Input
Amino acid sequence: MVKQFTYKIYRKPKNGNLDRLVNLHALLYNHCIALHKRYYRLTGKHLNQYALMRHIAKLKTRADFEWIGLLGSQSAQDVIQRIERGYSLFFKENKRGNRRIQPPTFRKVRKYRSFTLKQAGWKLVADNIIQIDGRTHKFALSRPMEGQIKTVTIKRDAVGDFWVCFACEIESSPQLASTGETGGMDFGLKTFLTLDTGTEIQSPQFFKANSRTIVHANRNLSRKQKGSSNRLKARKTLARVHRRVAWQRDDWQWKTARQLASTYDVLWIEDLNLDGMKRLWGRKVSDLAFYAFTQKLDYLMAANGKVLNKRDRFFASSKTHFACGYVNSELTLTDREWVCPQCGETVQRDINAARMIKHGRAMSWGGDSVRQAMPATVVEAQESLSL
Ligand SMILES: [Zn+2]
Output
């Protein structure tokens, strides 16, 4: 499996060269986007990525496109592949009827973030020194690297700092012991996670905790004259605050995911339809946090030989009472608790949802389709359930 190792490159004047390289990749990116658009306008077809690669390779020999030669052919290819991935996603989602995903489009050079090198164009001179484009850059080796390096990505963040990110192929060596436990969880707006056992995990409000600093930095920025160096400085200050919030959230998510992965062998979550949630809640931030969290959880579970399963939304409905199968069609998002008219039990909304997600009880009253989709171990656990 692939593991990412990211290190901060020390701030030095020669980082200006990395800055220039990122900008050049942005220029190439925008040039390729323009070619894609023109090709589609003329032929009505999608420009093939290999044809584009050949075209770019030829372009290098022209005097006005000499600068492409500075990029190295592999990282230029990577730019084309990035665009291709954007288009693939767009075509796939469009086919499914999702019109919200847009094809890749032009990007501001200033906001372009990174470029990726494969085997060529870089060299590790020492454990913590990398050579790129003839210049050596020292980075803070915050933890030892493992495995075989597949790609090297140079990232420029909004603060203006540079990071080197090694994607390494490592042998997965499970560190978390098997427990034989299966769990279900429900994501919520109020409570970040509710487990089927009733345990609630609250999401710390990092953004809120930093809101005074953010408001202050924002106000400071808006007071500065456009194009001035003071404005640039203020923008960096704001970016630094946002970066800190993102780090805090990331850190918390990793710790929470690790805790869950060490407790459970099999975890069930609802297959989140992000579009639907956005419409329902109109909150983008929380959705993205869910997504980022499930990514981390999925990684940790897989790395330790465990499974994160997704339950179809239809079967994971929180409107169905887990114990008896009664469907409360009048349930609204604000109802945290309701009394089941069929069995008289008081139902805690989130815990009920987590149980539904864990056991997929809907199948007892629905069809057999879900049962077949479940792994054998869970089906066995289900059979022995005495209800
Ligand atoms: Zn009931």
Confidence is low (pLDDT under 50) at residues 362-387. The longest strand covers residues 148-156. The two ends are 41 Å apart (CA to CA). The chain has two domains: 2-169, 177-387.
